[in-house]
Amino acid sequence: MSDNKAKLDINGTVHDYPVLKGSVGPDVVDIRKLYGQTGAFTFDPGYKSTASCESGLTYIDGEEGVLLHRGYPIGQLAENSSFMEVSYLLLNGELPQQQELDDFSYTITRHTMLHDQLRQFYQGFRRDAHPMAIMCGVVGALSAFYHDSTDISDPEHRKISSHRLIAKMPTIAAWAYKYSVGQPFLQPQNDLSYTGNFLRMTFGVPAEEYELHPAVEQAMDRIFILHADHEQNASTSTVRLAGSSGANPFACVAAGIACLWGPAHGGANEAALNMLKEIGTPDRIPHYIERAKDKNDPFRLMGFGHRVYKNYDPRAAVMQKTVREVFDALNVKDPVFETALALEEIALNDDYFREKKLFPNVDFYSGIILSAIGFPTTMFTALFALARTVGWVAQWNEMISDPGQVIGRPRQLYTGPTERDYLSMDKR
Ligand code: CMC
Prior knowledge:
Strand content: 5-15%
Bound molecules: carboxymethyl coenzyme *A
Shape: globular
Number of domains: 2
Distance between the termini: 57 Å
CATH class of the largest domain: Mainly Alpha
Structural class: mainly alpha
Helix content: 40-55%
CATH topology of the largest domain: Citrate Synthase, domain 1
Number of helices: 18
Order of helices and strands: EEEHEEEHHHHHHHHHHHHHHHHH
CATH superfamily of the largest domain: Citrate Synthase, domain 1
Number of strands: 6
Radius of gyration: 23 Å
């Protein structure tokens, strides 16, 4: 809090509003009393200038391309830690001691199984259902199976449901894949890491021992870290808004998954790889660059641009490096990567993209790695959902633990008809 005040003159009357200071980042004008004092609302569709909550989890400086979780730069976390460690950090605020990490990993590992009846949910879907459709349905259904942890006023319930969500998501996502390819579901195996377990449940078969490739396991774990949380993005805000009414966390996370699915958000990784494949070879890039710049053409460069980053997305830099590591380890070459590198270079030197500060985002390279590992494009957003679950859950917990938390209820600028009398059918 500071003594600074913002002055707002509405129709000749000046009102003062406190200017709040975060630990870092832009100041915030506290307008909570605005409506009560002036009868006016603010208008900010898309929340381009609105801080919807107070949070101590993740900080982004979009101008500088900085992303910190609890103060730690994403590059350092991706390089040195594990997804379990980052999950602990997000949930608890500090990096764990070894014993704390071991206990946390043990707990998560022991929650990875799904209630056996949940298998039947899968049978209700068509085999060609999009994995995100299955994720929305199955995650929403968790509240019907685990209602012993849905009393959100009880911190112990909140903790158990958080652990359950983080732990069960890999099983749910892997089974969505297995169902689509008609292979039997594999149960989790407790001697594997969080990420190793997920890879085995996805690509293993009962007939033989699954061999984990260390480089793939590490790359996958890093991809999970890069997607773990990202401040008040659309799906996280959805989880918070759903949770603000007191809804249980399984339902809230299902709402977050639905929001993440859109191509402007988590669906962009699938769209980006499809776009790169459609472009095909570097000589066709200029045509697509022109289309992206054409106001009359709805085409956009997928995996490019960001609401917050007006600089290189720090996650994209790690992702590009990881592509090379996975390709080297698996000894693969993919012309799509060459196309992506060429597209990035051309776009970054193009006035349109420079002026609008459009840079590659996390989704630009992730699809190339996931494809090399063996995932079909339809699984990409499901993997994003899997990793983002810890962020959703941590943000939801932060909100519910806040004594000042109230239901989210935006207002509007009404432009519809004013009051008028009902007309009987013969008078319309
Ligand atoms: N290709 C071409 N032009 C673009 C692009 C793009 N990818 N992104 C933005 N622009 C232009 C846009 O046409 C607009 O131009 P003008 O000012 O002339 O109307 C200007 O840049 C600003 O765009 P905006 O849509 O007003 O910006 P926004 O902050 O509302 O949108 C975005 C951000 C991520 C939705 C957008 O950049 C986009 O659609 N990108 C492609 C989809 C994508 O990669 N999404 C993943 C985001 S990162 C992962 C995640 O958060 O889920």
